[in-house]
Amino acid sequence: MAEIVRMPKLSDTMTEGVVAEWHKKIEDNVKSGELLADIETDKATMEFESFQEGTLLYIGVEKGQTAPVDSILAIVGKQGEDIAPLLEGEKKKAAPAAEPKKEEPAQAPAPAAQTTPAEAAKPAETVKPASQPAKPAVAKATNDGRFKISPLAKKLAGDKNINPSFIRGTGDGGRIIRRDIENYQGSGGALPVVLEESYTDEPLSQMRKTIARRLVESKFSAPHFYLTMEIAMDEMVKAREIINQVADPVKISYNDIIIKAVATALREHPRVNASWRGDFIRYSNHIHIGMAVAVDEGLLVPVIRFADSKTLSQISAEAKEYAQKAKNKKLQPADWEGNTFTISNLGMFGIEAFTAIINPPDACIMAVGGIHETPVVKNGQIVPGHVMKVTLSCDHRTVDGATGSAFLQTFKLLMENPVILLGMQNI
Predict the structure, then answer these.
(1) d(CA 375, CA 364)
(2) Which of 32, 74, 94, 286 has the fewest CB atoms inside 10 Å of its own CB, making it the most exposed?
(3) φ, ψ for residue 240, nearest 5 deg
(4) Spatial distance between the Cα atoms of 215 and 221, rounded to a whole number of angstroms
(5) Cβ-contact 366, 390 below 8 angstroms
(6) Are residues 30 and 178 in the same domain?
(7) Among the options 23, 372, 386, 396, which is catalytic?
(8) What does the buried/exposed string (b/e) look like for 5-22 if buried means 16 or more CB atoms within 10 Å of the residue's CB?
(9) Local mean pLDDT, 10-residue blocks, the chain (427 residues)
């Protein structure tokens, strides 16, 4: 008997999915456990295996299309089986269709306009022929002043810095086409302005929809406050150079060190390692650090689990693996769930300082800026120094100002004195 394959719920926040690729086509045999399709969720593109066996009789969501969770993805059954009853049953479950519009009576033709004596006295306008033979023209323009030019020709003109107003179009109606740009040998001036307004509308991906929804929920439900601290990084810069001389082939990044220092500070300040749960606050005994990773479609937050118990080399290897999986959209739900604290680092982009929106259900997120050289005062003398700024965003329902400040003081101590941090564990 034919069975409906429904759009699966592949993450806890997924409400709809996009079929990125079909691995079977109509009339193909399908076995249980065999790869049926790739489904793009709000966080990753995941492989979807069939739980049914038989012949693929129907595809309900074409490649590239979006469908809500539990809608018909496909139908699998015996070859030649009638699936009409299944489809009819689904239609009956759906909301009743809107009533058809009533046909409006045809309108009577509008009466001919009355001609006033004054209008009758005006000389009749000369009527131009409906069409004229096309002649090559120099930069023919449309009625709104835009040049008639093909998109490809316009791009080539921009690349070559050529003003199309100096070019004779040889396309239909004097339209400037590719060969006109390529064959142009004149010495016309450089293109002074953009020829026409344009824009591109890009549909929201499942990931971007979820990011937008979660950030709005976080920003407007959690009362944020922010604590910023400046950290002297001279000793850490030296320590990292030494570490990477002896830790070959693993190279330790500043982000790896920050993850370790945050995890160590959270062990000292467990009330920051918390989350708001509506009618209670949860203080986690384990420390799972979410690290924000930028991808083309938004932001993913894979989780370094039990980060306080791992060495820098282990953290570095995990972080690199997760970052690559995120960029390839290969993260699985287990990779991004369970964070108790999140770090967002934009230092590698030259950002000095910023504030981040809390990543639910965490109570805090730390925004990390870049390390930059600046004049600092040491022992009454102005000398060059390396400085990094961090900003802790806190959910005031869970973490108070004094609690967040004490955590930052411990983090600052560890970063400014790497011997304390590194003395607690093997590299």
Answers:
(1) 31
(2) 94
(3) -65, -40
(4) 10
(5) yes
(6) no
(7) 396
(8) bebbebbeebebbbbbeb
(9) 88 83 92 88 81 91 90 91 86 61 46 42 41 43 58 82 81 82 68 64 81 84 95 96 82 95 97 94 96 84 95 94 88 89 94 94 96 91 95 96 97 95 68
396 part of the active site: yes
3-state SS, residue 194 = coil
pTM of whole model > 0.90?
no
Domain residues for 27?
Answer: 3-92
Q: Number of structural domains, the chain?
A: 3
| Other CB atoms within 10 Å distance of the CB of residue 270 | 14
- In degrees and rounded to multiples of 5, residue 411 shows phi and psi of -60, -45
Alpha-carbon distance 133 to 56, whole Å? 57
Q: Does residue 176 share a domain with residue 290?
A: no
Is the domain of 177 the same as that of 222? Answer: no
Helix (H, G, I), strand (E, B) or coil at 16: strand
CA separation for the pair 409, 223 (Å, rounded)? 22
